[in-house]
Records
---
Amino acid sequence: MKMIEELEVEFGRQITREFSSAMLYRQLAVDLELRDLPGMAAWMRSRSTEEIGHADRLIEHLTHRGNHPIIGDVTVPSIKADTVAEIFEIALDAEREISEAIRNLYRLAQEHNDIDSRPIIDWFVAEQIEEESSVSEIVGRLELVGDDGSGLLRIDSELASGGV
Ligand code: FEO
């Protein structure tokens, strides 16, 4: 069943957020490449691809229901980070914002009794818990190693092979 316009607009905003998140991860990958940390950069690029997958999942939901998803203006904030841990903290803050946006989408869908969007929103709620957890763990480990080169290179190599 087609969703009401107010919900369609909010889903559209979430699509924009997912694409913006993809571009943020791409930018963070650039900053890590410039620090000679190719494993961490590859991890960021892979997250970027996942975010595009999230946007596509939302787009598909809307089109299947006869709605018209609009990709809005994709924005990337300027990156200000002195340490590698701070680069990952930017990703963590962004994920927390997305989690809150998903919760708001959940609340709005509930308010309008939009049962059809329940499965996809539930999927996103679970996905955000996982994403926050994995970035948070990396931030914690980076804080433990501080600016110790060998520690950073170890984490870099783990992330290159898809670890953490
Ligand atoms: Fe799709 Fe990481 O939010």
---
Amino acid sequence: MKSSAPGKVILFGEHAVVYNRPALAVPVTQVHADVEVLDSPRKGVWINAPDINLHAELNSLPSDHPIASVILKVFQRFDISQPPALNVSITSTIPVASGLGSGAAVSIAIIRSLSSFLIHPLPDKEINSIAYEIEKLHHGTPSGIDNTVITYSRPVYFIKGEPIETFTVGKPFTIVIGDTGISAPTKESVGDVRRLWLHDQSNFENIFDEIAQIVLIARRSIESGKPEMLGELMDQNHAFLQSLTVSSPELDKLVEAARNAGALGAKLSGGGRGGNMIALTEQPTAESVANALMSAGAKRTIITEIN
Ligand code: PMV
């Protein structure tokens, strides 16, 4: 039983989304996690993840291991105490710890393929809620945006705890993703923002409100087929993220380089401090913006069309 899950990027609203403001995220289908579950001739549940050099039997891993914990949750969901002999093969082209949702995508592909293998394919709603439990195990207090956009594989307007709203893209647009190559745990930047917020709630609440306004205007621009308006909104959102202290010299350098190379706007995406930034470009300039990002120190770029 095979299953695939895409990567994702947050377009607008990261961090503020933890404080119940809306955020927009879209799937990135150029990168994906793929899982295949098959009967095994050997007793036990064998996990093969060559990308991370993992070849192990489930019981030999700690129960809080990111992959073991997903498999155990699925068995638990079906009250399976004696799992059948099986092989779980996991591969992924999503860069790890860079804000593209690699952990959530692997979880979701496992849940989907394993539940189908067990002849109980789970509905998206349940896949999403199991994936969220796993995100909580590993990331502290995640908003749930990653697992949601990846489970539904559609653009999502996300507010924590509210029913999922997908939205339509009036006119396709091009995003260039630039990876600083710096792995920065989201848990830390979220924790730092929390500490700053505790000291100065009114200032931070104001910033979150400003970001929420940007998200609303961005959604309207995307739906009404005016994506060119997103450039300026990205620049504004990036400035607010800088004041939340979650940017970094490397991210700022890439954002600047993208703008200088003709991008309509750019911002960091995700937890910040490292990981990714995104730039809005006209389709013909995407390649030169990607080249400029590489020259400015990006380790990798992805050009993706949002439609
Ligand atoms: O670093 P990423 O792409 O997983 O995104 C984190 C987004 C935050 O808003 C900073 C945290 C969250 O849980 O929503």
